[in-house]
Records
---
Amino acid sequence: MLVDEQLYTLNLRTFGWAEVSTIGYCPVGRLGACMNIVDDKLFLFGGMTMRHTLSPDFLFLDLDARSWMRPKARGEGPSPRESASSVIIGTKIVYFGGMDGKRLGDLYTFDTSDLTWSKVEIPAPSSQLERSLHTAVAVKSTMFVFGGWTNASPSNQSKFGAPWVCSNDGFSLNMGDF
């Protein structure tokens, strides 16, 4: 967990927190970032900083060396955002949605084996999928997405008075072909 530019770990036996010393570029504190562990690397993407700016950071922490690094990635990755979801399917980290001032419904993969970004075209109209602050989980090659803040339909907007609603819908994305 990143708090005020420090990395902490939780001991699950004692439930005590301990600061982890790292070297290299230290990411600033943020909320709504994505973190995933693949092999011996902790990947960090995006989030909103304490200054309310979206972070373009895409970094990893080598867990053995405790060193932060920027991967020399190929391809174009997602725009800076917060409150997206991410799951691991095979060697790929799959990033979905989030917010960059508007709700997003796009899908990207980062292949950790060759450090390549790819944008994945979603068959359904992405405007139906736009959301932030949702949750996602991977089961085999399928990403399941549930809930989050979504854009309100005109009837919901007039009913609740807000351009967004807290959703209770879900969908799945079969990533087997990607």
Note: The chain has a mean pLDDT of 90.
---
Amino acid sequence: MKILNLIFSALRDLWYRIAYDSLSFSSLKPDSIDVGDQESHEAVHWIPSVEVAHQVKQAYLTHPPSQLTYRLQVPPKGLFRTFVALKPEAWGKNLAGVEFRVSVSSQNNGQSISGKSFSHPTDCLKHRQWREFTLNLKKFANQEVNLTLSTATPPNEPADHAWAIWGNPAILSRRFLGKLWVFLQVPCE
């Protein structure tokens, strides 16, 4: 079953690389960072490569409580896509789990949406992998928005070993069929 999951994941990643243009968050600078009483450079930073369940991704570590806000223009047919997990070193040590939340609010008309995912690899073995997290941004096409990534532990729970990571966070925009066709053409020899 693990082999099939890896194959399916690889095919899905290939589809996203072919059908979508991508703006990686690693190329963006947050407009604001709030990490409470923590040292910001320790609580929030990029890790070049993190392996979780045999899949390697560039990851943004955001130790709770943390909140990073980006101001950006949403492309037509925009989609926020990332993978969430706790660093493998935290499995079995983190007792409360972590909530990952993405919030988007328009600068123009006040519309907003949000999505969340909870990860608790100590209690739930299915959480010992990268878990895809997407948020459809189509209603914000061509608008400037504030997009906030935040992590939190459950109320009154400690943040010990709450090493929350966002794998390959990006804003995707669907390629037009013409661009997709050119990408798929194989040169004749």
Note: The helical segments are 2-19, 40-43, 177-184.
---
Amino acid sequence: MKFEIKHWIDGGVLFSIETESLKLAVEAAVKNGANLRGANLAEANLNGADLRGANLRGANLAGANLAEANLAEANLAGANLAGANLRGANLAEANLNGANLVGAYLSGAYLRGAQGLEKFPIQIGAHKHWLITTQDGKLKIGCHVYSFAQWEKHADAIGEKEGYSPLDIKIYKLHIAHIRKVSELLWKAKDLAQRQQREAGADGNPETSAPAKEGA
């Protein structure tokens, strides 16, 4: 079966191949050094794909399944990864500057050395709207994005405006307090790990790489 990987804006063909699945087509493109900048891979099933070093700058990967994928050293700058499943993915040394990670699932992802994740996203699926932290350290609930301090100050007013019941507001205020504590703990741990990594590099010690995927 022939698979074509096209640009998400102009529809131009970036790579084509006769193979058995889109996953194999994308892996072949990467293996052959194809430039997949701006590729339209929204909703693609790339579970476990070996995409190490891929150029996916500005690609549309919204809703894609990238669980357990090897994206080490991949260029994902400006890519749309909204809602993507990145569970257990290897993103070591990947370039994520400007990438849209709203709603992306990053549980178990390996992020050592990844660029552009100063505040990696944390999310809670609550009973009305999701709570998702942003890359600049703010909190998004529904369509509202504010700092934690602003949420704590104005949660009642925003909740009432959105038609939340008093019980809904009480529950969401608990969620806000919880995700703030969790984010502070995790982000501080990441900052410490990065500082230790820089210090180890300054001492001339080799950095530990993520384990290679089997069969890679």
Note: The chain has two domains: 1-117, 119-216.
---
Amino acid sequence: MLLLAAGLLVGFAALNAWAADDAPAKETGTVIGKVIDSDNNPVSSAVIDVLAAKASHPTTSAAGGDAPKSPAPRIHGRTGQDGTFKFENVPVGKYIVNAHREGKGGGHTKEPLEVKANETVDAGTITLQMRPGSHATTVPSK
């Protein structure tokens, strides 16, 4: 009886391994970049959004290219102390990277980035700019 149970356990484990190998692999890549302010200083804690190109940038539809398969992921994070960011496991597709920080303004990649399987794409340096009519507010220290 013990031998039968061990045989069934080994068979079940082999079946699970075969099924896992047969499952389609999720194709992903990595997006890296840096955020600076208008004085060329790194911006820490800037909010970063990686958005499907067709959904976030109307001009990319005319340029062609495939946005990620539906549903498009919402990838969100912040820059490190040195102004850099890195997002791993980004599904293959075309994306726009948006960045902003209160008091520093906003910016985005000029062209869609194409994320390819097992590759790293560099979004480059995104320079934050204040929009016309907006201004940075300084809170006085106590």
Note: Confidence is low (pLDDT under 50) at residues 2-21, 56-64, 137-141.
